[in-house]
Amino acid sequence: MKAVAYNIKDYEKESLAIANGKVHDLTLISNSLNLSTIHYAHGKEVVIVSEDDFLDGKLLEELQRAGVQKIVTRSITTDHIDLHRAYDLGIQIANTPYEDRTPKGIAEQTIRNLNLWGNGKCVGQACCCVKECNVVNPNQIKNDTTK
């Protein structure tokens, strides 16, 4: 998948690169996501954000216009994302909900989400969509590390 990761800190770069293993086309930038930096998302399927990136309805609309279909937040919380507007726009949202909050653990969770989406699968417990879903299978996430 083609993805751009915003708000990347120096200590996150290596972990993301190792977890990715050159599977996905990742662009890592230190800038936060906003209307001035959204141009980095053009042509990408996925945007990866941190809890410091505020994704309101207007920014989500611009992301959709840029071609973004999915968003991964490198956080447990999704308070910084308008989930209802994302749902209305057809943008899927995932977080990184597992206990390992180290840079390595978060990077692995982020790439796991990309791997599952890339293989047409549900991200299970990481799914943050507001609709009820019959597809979620928590065991799939624990056992599936397919790249």
Tell me about this structure.
This protein has 147 residues and is an alpha/beta fold. It has a single domain, classed as 3-Layer(aba) Sandwich (Rossmann fold), CATH 3.40.50. The chain is built from five helices and five strands. Strands 2-1-3-4-5 form a five-stranded parallel sheet, sandwiched between helices. The longest helix has 16 residues, at 103-118. The radius of gyration is 14 Å and the shape is globular. The termini are close together. This is Lactate dehydrogenase. InterPro entries: D-isomer_2_OHA_DH_cat_dom, D-LDH-like. Pfam families: 2-Hacid_dh.
Task: Kindly summarize this structure in a few lines.
This protein has helices at residues 10-20, 57-65, 83-89, 103-118, 138-143; strands spanning 2-5, 25-28, 46-49, 70-73, 92-94.
Quick tags:
D-isomer_2_OHA_DH_cat_dom, 5 helices, globular, 33% helix, 5-stranded parallel β-sheet, disordered C terminus, alpha/beta, Rossmann fold, 147 residues, single chain
Distance, first to last CA: 11 Å
CATH topology: the name is: Rossmann fold
Give the total of domains. Answer: 1
Measured on Cα atoms, how large is the radius of gyration? 14 Å
Q: How much helical structure, as a percent, in the residues? A: 25-40%
Structure classification: alpha/beta
* Low-confidence blocks of residues: 136-147
What is the H level of CATH, i.e. the homologous superfamily? Answer: NAD(P)-binding Rossmann-like Domain
What is the name of the CATH architecture?
3-Layer(aba) Sandwich
Shape: globular
Strand content: 5-15%
List the secondary-structure elements in sequence, H or E.
EHEEHEHEHH
The biggest sheet, with number of strands, parallel, antiparallel or mixed sense and barrel status, is: 5 strands, parallel
